Amino acid sequence: MTAAKTPVFLLTGFLGSGKTTLLNAALRTPAMENTAVVVNELGEIGLDNLIIAQASDNVVLLEGGCLCCANPGALHETLADLAGRRARGEIPHFQRVIIETSGAADPAPLLNVLLGHPLVTGSYALEATVCVVDAQHFLASRQNYPELDKQAAVAERLVISKRDLADAGPALAFLRELNPEAEVVEGPAAAFASCARSRRPLGSLASLGPIRRREHVSGIRAFSFRPPAVTWAGWSAWSRLVKAEFGERLIRVKGLLRIEDGGEVVFVQGVQGVFHPPQRFRDWPDADHANRLVCIARDLSEAEIAITLPALSTAPGTQAVYSLKDLQERQARP
Q1: Domain coordinates of the chain in residue numbers?
Q2: At what angle do helices 75-87 and 107-116 cross, to 10 degrees?
Q3: Which top CATH class is 6-200?
Q4: Does the global pTM surpass 0.70?
Q5: How far apart are CA 270 and CA 76, in angstroms?
Q6: pLDDT along the chain (334 residues), means of 10
């Protein structure tokens, strides 16, 4: 029997947004016992308010069987080290991992590590990206720090902090346009709930509603599509096409698709031109039995992405290569 993979939560949010406050609250919750936390430096988690049981190398043992691990270098090495030490019985058996990023961190490289690095994917599975948004300062700060939009745009869950200091309405209205499929949650229990216990399976792909378009200062927008038919050859051709044509401007791709030539349903993900092995299902995981594809992009229009979608229907068994120019010319033909 294959051992279940350890769920990982990626916690993002700008400097001072309240990530550490949320994390500390989570570690005091009985439901979050046996959690491993990875931070850039141990001092960033605010350990003064927690009871430290033992320290060893870069790992600090906290009450409730929780761990706090500094990430001095590459994230994949830190996670692999934790998994190895757990297997050898050197540290407690943690049941989940929360990775707290630095306030100015671009989440995309970390997502690619979590979704595709062989030292990570054998033992861990990305559960959700959680972004903490400061109701008091977010809208003003994002004018000068475009990474705030990116952190919020790629998240499956949003936590609005500092509601007692400012009206959360304006920030919430903006976020619902920037990332309409994200789930807005309150408190650590909801922020770090497993997808099995969450009200919305598979994060933002549980349901696709209408997305209202608005030009943001950062140029980041989300688009949803319903491709009619997808083949393995088509998914491969489309992935190559958008990587070549759009590159890092296509910040994140998430899709729940039925593959015509195999009949299986797959959950696909890509981050800035890097696409990762799909997660396979025997059947649709929810009541919506239609293909859905969400694209979060910077400085791309809906039309530019939509024109690439016919590549998804490439005939099975072929090695088609497309260019944006080819598809534009094909569309222009009478």
Answers
A1: 6-200, 220-332
A2: 40
A3: alpha beta
A4: yes
A5: 18
A6: 82 88 86 83 44 44 54 78 91 90 82 93 95 92 84 94 93 91 91 66 39 50 90 95 93 92 90 90 86 90 94 90 82 72
